[in-house]
Every structure is written in C-alpha cells, then in structure tokens.
Amino acid sequence: MGKCYSSDLRVRIYSAVEDGASRRAAARRFGVSASTSVRITQRMSATGSVAPARQGRPRGGGELAPYAATLIRWVEEEGDITMPELAAKLAAEFGVVAHPASLAKFLIKQGFSVKKNAAGHRGRSR
Length: 126
Known about the structure:
Elements: H1 7-18, H2 23-30, H3 34-47, H4 68-77, H5 83-94, H6 100-109, E1 113-116, E2 122-125
Antiparallel strand pairs: 1-2
C-alpha cells in the first residue's frame, strides 16, 4: 500500500490553487500528478480538510462476523473438528463458502488454539 503525501505538501498544493493557479499548474510546480492535485482540492471542498482519508479496510467486519457465535459453538461442542469439516458444515447450514484457512484465522482471532492432550489427540481450547 502506498504512502500518503505529507500534510505540508497538501496544504501548499491547495494554497497554490486558492491563490489562482490551476490544478494542473500546481501539480507541475510541486511534482505531483494532476489527479493528485484535483483530489486534494476536491477533498478540501468536500470535508474542509486536506488530511488524507484513513487507508485500509475497517476492522470487525468480514463475511464470517455474522456467524461468529455459531462457529464458536460448533468448535466448543466438537473440539477436534477440522477446518475443512467446519467449512463444509458452514456451507451446508448457511450456504456461506469460506476457505478453511479463513476459518482458521477467524478462530485464532477469537482466541482459539490447537492443543494436544496427554493422549496425543488434538483439541481446540480457548
């Protein structure tokens, strides 16, 4: 993911446009693309700030979030369930297709880990 231009540069570009320079002229003067200059001035008129918007996807969402309680219940009921079995159960029950690796990451974020007991059998613990 690319980095944002500094706030100082954004302010200087916007100030140049406010002082009468065209957006393209301001872009040439400061060595940025014309589209960057246009976006900075549009952002200022829309939000009142030239600060960059937050990058990345917001946390907490995802396709598995609505099924969190059900997935946790299934894993707690059957501790040695495999990820492909869990994916098949999710697809059969709700019609949601999830890759086993995505389910594993989801369960790790929920605090689950794979532990072996004294007999050498796997089980999920929280």
